[in-house]
Amino acid sequence: MQHIAYFIQKYKYFLLFILLEVFAFLLTVQSRSYHKSQFINSANAITGGFFETSNSFFEYTTLKKENLRLAEENTLLRNQLASIPEQIHTIPLDSTLQTNEFITAKVISNNFKKRNNVLTIDKGTNDGLSIDMGVITSHGIIGVINNISSNYATVLSILNSKSKINVKLKRSHYFGTLDWNGKNYRYSQLQDIQRQAPIQIGDTIVSGGKSILFPEGILIGRISDFKINNKNYENIEVELFTDMSNLGYVHVIKNNDKEEIEKLENQND
Amino acid sequence: MTRDTLSIAIRFIFLLLLQVLVLNNINFFGYINPNLYILFVFLYPLEQKRTNFLIVAFLLGLCVDFFSNSGGINAAATLFIAYIRLYVLKLVLNKFDIDYKLFKLTSEQSIKIFIYIATLTFAHHFILFYLDYFSFKNLSLVLYKSFTTSIFTIILSILSLVLITKKKTV
Question: ipTM of the assembly?
Fold first, then answer.
């Protein structure tokens, strides 16, 4: 017993160091697993509040770009509206038939240069958000909500080793997975694509619609480079349409059929 | 003692906010964000009892993690350099026992200060990026990132040290 006490006394700094280091390590490992909600996250009132205040100072610097983006989106939507035939306006709309609802939120913290990127947005459960909702802009997919508090939420960006987005080729409906290798934030990598899928440089990649997080056909990027090895595709580089370094306002997708789909899927287990 | 504690607390909060609100958004050359907050570790007064120091350094790293959603990587890296600080200092200054009370970093030779800061900064950044990428496959990328980011952290740390010492002599 005395020996143990002596040992602890002698190495107490080292033991404290090891103890805290193990704790930090556990937090790191825990933050790597997708399904566990992170303990250390910025979706809380204190960090969220700080980010919101600091964001309100720097917001003005990006207003011009943000305006341009909104104007482009408006033009796009107007063009789409114009192509819808006139008689459709006479069909009575029932809001319960709407599958996807969009909620606007503002990105208040963005780290795009890390290996594992997480964004913080200024909406939370009070605004009807919940975990596992998709987040997009008019240019493409941003990520999925992974932590939430009453007024803030964190978004697991597509630039994160944990995030694997189901995608497909717009032209041919072959499915694949988008998985970032951590090098350049303008490019992500397409994995698990069938070897018989015809792909070319310049092909557009859209969301697959297999997951309930994103509706089918949301833009993601275009293929910029790939190699063929042993008749298999390798290193398919996808240039993302969204500039992840410059995010202002984003849309959160609320799928109204989500509960129904999940209930149905759980019955099969 | 209370005056020291107060200045440490102010330095803690100031460096934390500077890091998470300003320095984490610099993105120099696209990805370089200097981690100036470890200046806290360099400047923390030397004490015989290191328990407080280790805990405070750990908390500082953890606070940075809270803001940047990075698990515990900053906490782990900051704690590590806090632990090895005394040994590095003894090695660099070539002394076996340091007068803890009278020791002042800024009164040492500038080349020694530089080696001390450079060693700790690189150790910190290497652990930070290594835990961030978490695989041996990306070792060259991790080394490259830690090296380039270290350069900027070291430059900023030394500039800050110069500023602090200037203020005190006037």
Answer: 0.81
